[in-house]
Amino acid sequence: MRTSTKATLGSKTKSGIIGLSAILLAGTAVPALAQEVEGSGITISGNAALTSDYRFRGLSFSDGDIAVQGGIDVAHESGFYIGTWASSIEDSPTFGHTELDLYGGWSGDVTDGLTLDVGLLYYVYPNGEGGAAGPSDYFEPYASVSTTLGPVELTTGIAYAWSQASLGDNDNVYIYTGVSGGIPNTPISLNANIGINDGSLGNPVGVLGDDNYIDWTLGADWAITENLTASVAYTDTDAPSVNNFTDSAVVFTLGVSF
User: Fold this and answer.
1) Quick one: average pLDDT of 212-223?
2) Which residues lie below 8 Å from residue 150, measured CB to CB, with a gap of 6+?
3) Nearest by Cα to 244 from 87, 25, 63
4) How far apart are CA 9 and CA 6, in angstroms?
5) How far does Cα 65 stand from its chain's mean position?
6) How far is it, in rounded angstroms, from Cα 108 to Cα 87?
7) Does the structure show a pLDDT above 70 at 121?
8) Which residues neighbour 224 within 8 Å (Cβ) at sequence distance 6 or greater?
9) Is 190 helix (H, G, I), strand (E, B) or coil?
10) Closest C-alpha among 27, 10, 23, 29 to residue 201
11) From CA 146, how far away is CA 47, in angstroms rounded?
12) Which is nearest to 205 in space by CA: 242, 248, 235?
């Protein structure tokens, strides 16, 4: 079953973006239980989660507080899909209190054992006022390739946001690699992710003297039931430590799929 695109971008999860697909990472998304629309070749799936801290690419978007998240994906048997994902964030005049991600793309096997996922993600802050910095919404194309090596799944990807007004008329690139695998005969799986961000989306960190930074995540998921998953993840960056922003954190998430 397909995992939320947001999750894969951010080592969320934004996922990445989002930030895409980090494997995911704070805000870890759980596999969705796809519901098939009879005779249409279309499946619809959804997910919802409560997380102790919305971390995207190592940075806290909720100021270290609890965040409520959820998303819906619609996929066709041809490999094309569209989806939306949202999260509560730390309230501010520029971004408001909600992040809404809209995305679409294609995912499928390009050769035996190698899966390609390409698409475009649009980050929207519907409650934000923009402020002196200008608009806050932006677009980010993404691409990733995944393969399985024995019991381990490996994903490598890139998300590139071209120069846009909301990014200070600069571009941004995020490159990541993630691995995941289940522990045999247990409902537990382990995952790890490392990413490099370079560009305008690192500006909040740049204020502290860094133009780019590296983030990493180590996590474990426990499948309590078929559609209920509990996750714990340790996340950190090499940026100067700012409490509830760039500092290390242990994030707990309870997610449900439907």
Assistant:
1) 96
2) none
3) 63
4) 5
5) 18
6) 27
7) yes
8) 187, 230
9) strand
10) 10
11) 22
12) 242
Lowest-confidence pick of 2-16, 66-80, 180-194, 206-220 = 2-16
Tokens of 108: 């499928």
- Supply the range of the domain harboring residue 35: 5-257
Q: Which whole number is the average pLDDT over 164-193?
A: 94
pLDDT above 80 for 80 = yes
Residue 167 has a pLDDT of 85
Give the domain CATH number at 89: 2.40.160.40
**pTM for this prediction:** 0.85
* Contact between 76 and 45 (Cβ < 8 Å): no
Which SS3 state, helix, strand or coil, does residue 226 take? coil
Nearest-angstrom CA–CA distance, 155 and 103 = 19
Give the pair of three-digit tokens for residue 42.
Answer: 């279309």
Stretch (H or E) spanning 106: strand 96-111
Total structural domains within the chain:
1
What is the C-alpha separation between 177 and 22, in angstroms, rounded? 7
For residue 116, what are the β-bridge partners? Answer: 108, 145
How far apart (Å, rounded) are the C-alpha atoms in residues 146 and 40?
27
pLDDT class of 40 with cuts at 50, 70, 90: confident
Query: Beta-carbon neighbour count of residue 243 at 10 Å?
Result: 9
Mean pLDDT, rounded, for 126-149 = 84
CB 27 within 8 A of CB 56: yes
